[in-house]
Design goal:
The complex is a heterotrimer of chains A (about 290), B (about 325) and C (about 325).
Chain A: H1 2-11, H2 24-41, H3 78-114, H4 116-131, H5 134-144, H6 150-177, H7 180-187, H8 192-228, H9 240-249, H10 256-283
Chain B: E1 9-18, E2 25-35, E3 40-44, H1 51-58, E4 66-71, E5 74-75, H2 81-87, E6 91-94, H3 108-119, H4 124-137, H5 142-145, H6 155-167, E7 173-177, H7 185-202, E8 205-210, H8 213-219, E9 222-227, E10 230-236, H9 237-242, H10 247-255, H11 295-299, E11 305-308, E12 311-313, H12 319-324
Parallel strand pairs in B: 3-8, 3-9, 6-7, 7-8
Antiparallel strand pairs in B: 1-2, 1-4, 4-5, 9-10, 10-12, 11-12
Helix pairs in contact in B: 3-4, 3-6, 4-6, 6-7
Chain C: E1 6-19, E2 22-35, E3 39-43, H1 50-58, E4 66-74, E5 77-78, H2 84-88, E6 95-98, H3 102-105, H4 112-124, H5 128-141, H6 147-150, H7 160-172, E7 178-182, H8 190-207, E8 210-215, H9 218-222, E9 227-232, E10 235-241, H10 242-248, H11 252-260, H12 300-304, E11 310-311, E12 318-319
Parallel strand pairs in C: 3-8, 3-9, 6-7, 7-8
Antiparallel strand pairs in C: 1-2, 1-4, 4-5, 9-10, 10-12, 11-12
Helix pairs in contact in C: 4-5, 5-7, 7-8
The chains are: A mainly alpha (about 290), B alpha/beta (about 325), C alpha/beta (about 325).
Chain lengths: ~290, ~325, ~325
């Protein structure tokens, strides 16, 4: 540790900051995620086959020129179902995170900055919610709240994520809020709002962003799990989760049906997590000085 | 030093208590002092004596439990919200840790301009000119370094930037809380000299809080010594260092290490450690470690008494009276 | 003085870290020796290499990305190049070290007595009872009152000064011949600092050991050491008897250190001698004298050619400077 201090001490002297590189792999991951998002957004205008058109002439076909990734047991094009299925996964995860971060992040920052009663009451409430296993609660609510719709799924997962987001953002903001520069801003006469926006937010944001990416990845899996239990969007609308679910029955005859949606989901998650990791390291002020 | 009778800052019976009624900790247990315009008051003491808490209470970073703080005749302890914000321009503070007192993600120019932006006093080119002027005053080249981020600077430079920021609104009183203790000797000298220069240029009044006796003497006109939340002695720095009246001051000075091989090593080192401020001794707080303590010290708390002009001591048996006997 | 009496002989010692930004010569060729029962002070600012030097002497350096050359002969044992196992045979018995933050060198979840015990049992092969008795003796030796009761407390229950005393007790458990103290009193209050320094001095006499006191504080070394080494940017810039260096230093950096620190005996508002700039970037050291960019006496030669240590008038006093300060008259000192 003392070596690091030395090296840091020695290297910190007024040199223009060295450009930190994110690496090729990072950009490949970003590219893949961008491709996914683009495909999901433009699914309707892309020359894709109808994802719910059942072509009984070619059932359980393997990959071919006509069906890039083959067809399922009802003769639907798997490639097109994966693209359309990504819409559900992405809509649910983004929507849920908008709710989770929209509520959890400001509350977390405010609690860390204000402390005192506000913080202790809010934190107790959040911890009570955290004590429920989120996935069980989500399953329970979704089983009773029928008929299911995409919006309901988003709301349920989003609300369930609020305490998690709150906890992460609060602890990140707490380390910032105790720094002297926050006190200094206060004694210069900065308003609370200004301190939150100018001092706290920029220092909490990197942690928030990397947690956001992890959150999206988690919701994608959660949606998969819900679909697997038949609690996500209703058939025949595809989602990665319910495609995998449907594939189980015919795993023996058509493994492609399980492999391709799983692969799509896996790659998506891997890329998200990698991006989150790299971004956190990249924006960390203390780390990576060398 | 001005001979005006009205002090710039008047502190009376200031107390700061932490914790709830069960576990109460009086970090500052009723202190009174004045700071006159243009002077530097040094506040020394060992860790846990309440010197930093005093500074923070004056800035209302921690809330005083009782007592009054008057700046230019205006009572501050009752101020709230907007009123409190308004007085912030009159008093500023510089912190111990130079690195953590600057937001690592902001540019130096913006950091120094922060007070100006908060108050919207100047804008545009005027703001730019003022920031450049402040940075040059503290020895940071605004052209070369103004656009750099705070994290790219060393401790000494960060402390310079902090000083520039604190001067932006032209405060009357500057509170320096251990501002050089994290710096190397050669950098410390630069900052202390700079502080003296800026004090003269900006007509500042300083409260200089530090644990280093030599540093405090170097910058101060008067010095107050704190022990366990109380002021035990206050007086002109040269007199206080030469002929301390409080036994604690004497021990403190005796323990100070002089960078001089010929300076005597004091055999009579103060033994033991300060008692817990949770449960301070009755009467005089120093009596448990004081060689001269009597029953009177346990029963009766000594008050600050003027023993010579401007030299006050809170001791039943000041050292000069002991010597006479 | 014959070489047999030297406890420690350091020759051309260099420690270089290989960092992603290039080699960093934390210690760049240092030679000195230490007599038995002597206290040596090593003074320097942050980044001067004093801490790396003391750790290299101990043989404590990271396994990777570091290169140590030269020689450290500690009571006949060559530390440089020795294996971990060989070094373990001298740690604690020949040489021990105390650090700035006592909390990091104590195990927070182990009773302090046990921590001393363990060293005694493992290193000296004492049995349980003898070890406990010795541990209590040691706690008593370092001035911890009612040692038998304190034997059972955890480090967290002690104050900083008390903890440092415990650390000293653990260091002394194996009766080392050399005690390396790295900023032992930094972070302690002045009155506690005085207690610890007095204790170290007393223990040094009592246990007949040598002490190396590494510090940034000239006040700490002024009265407690017989010789001092002043370091700057990984090299020795001045070395000699403490009295001589304080009174008749030749290197401008030493003067800056001495006259740059405020003194209790000086009147208020004494202008300090402030040198510009700050210690150099160790990854990019100047070609000549490392101090030249901050030195008001620097000439072209200083910027081109690095000065080596040369002898001053008093034996043992050396300095590295092309334009040394004039010798002060003895009478005036």
């Amino acid at each position: 540790m003392y070596v690091n201090e030395m090296v840091e001490e020695a290297s910190v002297h007024n040199r223009p900051e060295r450009k930190k590189r994110l690496g090729l792999l990072f950009w490949i991951c970003v590219g893949w995620i961008a491709l996914n998002l683009l495909a999901a957004a433009l699914a309707n205008v892309l020359p894709l086959q109808n994802p719910i058109f059942q072509n009984y002439a070619s059932v359980n076909a393997g990959p071919s020129l006509h069906h890039l990734l083959g067809t399922d047991d009802l003769g639907r094009d798997i490639f097109s179902r994966i693209v359309f299925g990504s819409r559900v996964s992405i809509e649910v995860s983004l929507g849920a995170m908008v709710i989770g971060f929209g509520v959890g992040a400001p509350l977390g920052m405010l609690a860390a900055y204000r402390r005192g009663k506000f913080d202790s009451i809010l934190s107790s409430v959040m911890y009570v919610f955290l004590a429920f296993p989120a996935i069980i609660a989500t399953i329970a609510v979704l089983s009773f709240w029928t008929p299911r719709s995409l919006l309901k799924i988003i709301v349920v997962i989003g609300v369930a994520s609020i305490p998690l987001v709150y906890r992460v953002i609060r602890s990140a903001a707490m380390t910032v809020a105790t720094k002297d520069y926050v006190v200094a801003a206060k004694v210069q006469g900065a308003t609370d709002r200004r301190i939150l926006m100018k001092e706290l937010l920029p220092n909490v944001a990197p942690i928030g962003i990397s947690f956001l990416l992890v959150g999206i990845a988690t919701v994608v899996t959660l949606e998969g799990a819900l679909a697997f239990l038949g609690l996500s969007v209703n058939a025949p609308t595809p989602s990665w989760g319910n495609m995998i679910n449907e594939s189980l029955a015919i795993l023996q005859t058509n493994p492609w049906l399980a492999i391709f949606p799983s692969l799509a989901m896996c790659l998506f998650l891997l890329c998200l997590n990698f991006i989150g990791d790299r971004l956190r390291a990249h924006f960390d002020v203390s780390e990576g000085k060398l | 030093m001005s001979d005006s009778t009205q002090p710039l800052l008047k502190v009376r019976d200031l107390t700061v208590t932490f914790g709830s009624h069960r576990r109460k900790l009086s970090a500052v247990a009723g202190i009174s002092f004045d700071i006159y315009e243009g002077e530097t008051l040094g506040l020394v003491g060992e860790s846990g004596c309440g010197k930093s808490t005093t500074g923070k209470a004056l800035m209302r970073i921690v809330e005083p439990s009782s007592g009054t703080i008057e700046l230019e005749g205006i009572e501050l302890t009752t101020k709230k919200g907007k009123d409190l914000r308004n007085f912030r321009t009159r008093m500023q503070m510089i912190f111990q840790d130079p690195i953590s007192s600057l937001n690592p993600r902001r540019r130096v120019k913006d950091i120094v301009a922060e007070p100006l932006d908060c108050w919207k006093t100047v804008e545009g080119a005027e703001r730019e000119a003022l920031v450049n002027d402040l940075l040059s005053k503290v020895g940071i080249d605004p052209v070369a370094y103004g656009d750099r981020y705070a994290r790219q600077f060393s401790g000494g430079q960060c402390q310079r930037i902090s000083i520039a920021r604190s001067l932006a609104m032209r405060p009357k009183l500057l509170i320096c809380d251990e501002m050089v203790s994290a710096l190397d000797v050669s950098v410390q000298a630069q900052i202390l000299n700079l502080l003296e220069d800026l004090k003269a240029e900006y007509g500042l009044t300083l409260l200089f809080i530090a644990h280093d006796l030599a540093v405090v003497k170097n910058v101060s006109d008067r010095v107050a010594v704190m022990y366990l939340g109380k002021i035990c002695e206050i007086g002109p720095s040269d007199t206080l260092y030469e002929s301390p009246e409080h036994p604690y001051t004497k021990f403190l000075l005796g323990a100070a290490l002089e960078a001089d091989p010929d300076s005597p090593i004091h055999g009579d080192v103060l033994s033991g450690e300060p008692p817990s401020p949770m449960n301070p001794p009755s009467g005089c707080r120093f009596r448990t470690r004081c060689p001269n303590a009597t029953d009177k010290c346990a029963n009766e708390e000594p008050q600050l008494v003027e023993i010579a002009t401007g030299h006050q001591v809170a001791c039943h048996y000041p050292l000069s009276t002991l010597a006479r006997k | 003085m014959s070489t047999e009496r030297k406890l420690l002989v350091v020759k051309d010692l260099a420690t270089t870290f290989h960092t992603p930004s290039g080699p960093l010569a934390a210690v760049g060729g240092v030679s000195f020796d230490l007599n038995q029962n002597e206290t040596l002070g090593i003074v320097g600012e942050s980044g001067s290499g004093k801490t790396v030097l003391s750790r290299t002497i101990m043989g404590l350096q990271p396994r990777n990305n570091v290169e140590v050359s030269g020689s450290v002969l500690l009571n006949g044992f060559e530390v440089v190049g020795a294996s971990e196992k060989e070094k373990r045979s001298i740690w604690g018995l020949e040489v021990a070290m105390i650090f700035q933050d006592p909390m990091t060198s104590l195990n927070p979840v182990m009773r302090i007595g046990k921590q001393i015990d363990e060293i005694l049992r493992v290193r000296l092969g004492m049995d349980r009872q003898a070890a406990k008795a010795k541990a209590i003796d040691l706690l008593d030796l370092v001035g911890i009152s009612s040692p038998a009761e304190r034997y059972n407390v955890f480090p967290g229950e002690l104050s900083g000064g008390m903890r440092q005393r415990v650390v000293i007790a653990t260091a002394l458990a194996g009766s080392p011949k050399l005690l390396m103290a790295d900023e032992p009193t930094t972070g302690l209050d002045v009155t506690i600092q005085a207690q610890i320094l007095n204790l170290l001095e007393e223990l040094k006499e009592r246990m007949q050991m040598s002490v190396v006191l590494v510090t940034h504080d000239l006040g700490v070394v002024a009265t407690r050491t017989s010789r001092i080494i002043v370091m700057y940017a990984g090299r020795i810039v001045e070395m000699g008897s403490t009295r001589e260096v304080f009174a008749r230093h030749r290197m401008p950096y030493t003067r800056a250190l001495l006259e740059g620190s405020p003194k209790v005996s000086n009147p208020s508002h004494t202008r300090l001698l402030a040198i510009p700039g700050r210690p150099p970037n160790m990854l990019n050291l100047p070609k000549g004298c490392s101090f030249a960019p901050r030195c008001s006496f620097a000439t072209d030669r200083c910027r081109e050619e690095r000065p080596e240590l040369e002898a001053a008038s008093e034996p043992g006093h050396t300095f590295a400077c092309w334009n040394p300060l004039p010798v002060k008259e003895r009478a005036s000192a």
